[in-house]
Amino acid sequence: MFQPHGTSPQLHWTCQRLLAAGLPCQVPGESPLWLPPDWEGYLAENCWLDLATDDSQALATRSGHCLQHGKQLVEICASWQPQGEVLGFMLLCGSSAPLSPAAVQWLDHCAPLAGAWLHCGPSGSARYTHHVMQALQHAWQVAWQQCPPTANPQLLDWEALMQQQWQIADKLLQLSQAYLRSHGIAPDTADSASVRQRFALPPASQTHFAANLALLIVLAMQQRDTLHDILQQVFAALQPKQPPKAD
To answer: Do 58 and 47 contact (CB within 8 A), yes or no?
Structure first.
């Protein structure tokens, strides 16, 4: 039995997917005394599936509360859209213990296909990974707005565009460094070869996908000066050639 708690739209959409699959999903007549009334998610066998969209500190508080009452908290993040009720949601999850069978069942039926979801690492890892995905999407949208396919490359302000991209990259770097420090990982001491080797594994085979992603971002940003020099050469080549001066 999956028991939804809360008022967020994603609870309705995911509940409809569960019902369509023939799984029991029903609002309880009375919530357990240990479960605060303002939580957003699902109560299932031995676990709490947390669908809230607040910050990691609030998530950590809920995780500790669940632990005190013998429940596993499973963090679940997605870009919640109504279309997911029919198509399924691209789900990221985080848990500090192996997922319970009930959690796996919920994820399999709310994702587009069974297994089409990503375990990112311990609690908080799904939030970090989701923030990275949002930052990359925003960077792409900015680039698309500034550089539409029909634009003449020689007439674009490449320097201004790259400044915008560097600002996004800086925030992504700070986010990644903070995530690594929160897990006791020194951001600047990772061996690049081992990081690339771990990240090359299928995501489902990585024990801490979010940490590997954060380390890869830190390593990439360490090459920023080299990349900037290469881009400057590209920009110079794109500049309109000046006609020769008449004698």
So the answer is: no
